[in-house]
Specification:
alpha/beta, Rossmann fold, eight-stranded mixed sheet, 16 helices
Length: about 375
């Protein structure tokens, strides 16, 4: 591993979730810790889901909870200003005890905290954009608020020393609104298997483990596969929202659809490899999904499994370039035809799966991405 010799740093990461299940943040923090630095994550535990303080893989996590006043506010978007104030206050308090060398903000809903700390202390500020955040919430808030958030991001970028993002599409977006240096650190997975291995299912098995929403073709995918012969659908999600309950009810209507509920994180990769294929079906009209590079793609790669993705997205471009899956239109007929194509063509599945695992081994794995992260930190530290 590339190490920051002679450049040991005390790093503060800021995160707007409780940091109980955030693989990107925890992997980045662990990478920096293993390189000899000290990393503390300041997290927002809105629902009091975890302890106030804990240590994971040598990384200290300090959590802020909602005040009683914040709990009275009906929407998280309206609580942001109070989170920013509380987060900045806590960060300054922590800095007074053990000074930080760099502040690393994850996504736009933490960047105002970093900007305030940068302004007061003058320490370097890294902005880690996991997605284009205003686009991600555009279906949940008024359009005027999306515009204000886009404007806020552009304004705050003036204080940023380095932008980290997750793929070429989002990098191109930031190049249009800032002249700050931009680096890509993808959400690649650790290599899990050395060679391709064919699945051993009696029925062609599709698996999906992740969030479920209308714009991810849920619950329609359950009815579509439920009425297909020779195909099994396995689903899992840790989200406790209405769509998940609706999906579970739909699965109960069919013999070939199985809803697992929440599964341990360590089962995600083995279960994906045990299936024949996975999928990520998103509405390509969504600006958020047009730019997103999905964790599902990297999970499929390390497992050597083909993935089905929606056309007119950056994810589709990557899938076609690597020849590691098939691209579909966002409608039931196209999706059904593609599932049948994979079901009836084991040689095609194998070719796509072999290409997938080779892509992971040669390019898309966390060993390569962690080196990128450390080199970015070296550059920021040296000015």
């Amino acid at each position: 591993m590339f190490r920051l010799w002679g450049s040991v740093m005390n790093i503060l990461m800021v995160l707007s979730n409780p940091c109980t299940h955030d693989p990107r943040v925890l992997k980045e923090a662990k990478t920096l810790e293993e390189a000899g630095n000290t990393v503390t994550i300041l997290a927002w535990d809105r629902k009091r889901q975890a302890s106030i303080e804990e240590t994971k893989d040598g990384v200290d996590i300090v959590r802020l909870r909602n005040t009683k006043f914040m709990d009275l506010i009906p929407y998280n978007i309206l609580r942001l200003r109070f989170w920013w104030m509380a987060g900045a206050k806590k960060a300054l308090e922590m800095h007074s005890r053990t000074p930080f060398d760099i502040i690393h903000c994850h996504d736009l809903d933490t960047l105002p905290i970093g900007e305030k700390i940068k302004r007061k202390l003058g320490i370097p500020l890294i902005y880690d954009s996991h997605e284009i955040w205003p686009y991600m919430i555009e279906d949940e808030v008024p359009k005027i608020l999306v515009k204000r958030l886009l404007s806020l991001e552009k304004k705050l970028l003036k204080s940023v020393d380095y932008v980290i993002t997750v793929g070429k599409s989002s990098r191109d977006y930031f190049r249009l609104i800032t002249n700050k240096p931009i680096g890509i650190v993808m959400n690649c997975k650790d290599l899990a298997y050395e060679n391709y291995q064919s699945p051993k299912n009696l029925e062609f098995t599709l698996i999906y483990i992740g969030s479920m929403s209308k714009k991810r073709f849920f619950p329609e995918i359950v009815d579509l596969v439920g009425q297909m012969a020779g195909v099994k659908l396995v689903l899992a999600s840790s989200a406790k929202r209405g769509m998940v309950y609706e999906v579970k009810e739909r699965c109960d209507n069919y013999k070939n659809t199985e809803f697992l509920g929440t599964i341990p994180e360590e089962e995600l990769i083995p279960r994906t490899r045990a299936a024949d294929a996975t999928f990520i079906l998103v509405d390509p009209k969504s600006k958020h999904y047009q730019h997103t590079l999905f964790n599902k793609q990297f999970e499929a790669m390390v497992c050597g499994r083909p993935i089905i993705v929606t056309n007119n997205t950056f994810a589709a471009e990557m899938t076609k370039e690597l020849d590691c899956g098939l691209v579909v239109d966002y409608n039931g007929e196209s999706i059904r035809e593609t599932i049948i194509k994979l079901r009836d063509n084991p040689d095609l599945c194998k070719r796509l799966g072999v290409n997938a695992i080779k892509s992971a081994q040669n390019i898309y794995n966390w060993e390569i991405e962690k080196e990128k992260l450390l080199k970015i930190y070296e550059r920021v530290k040296n000015g």
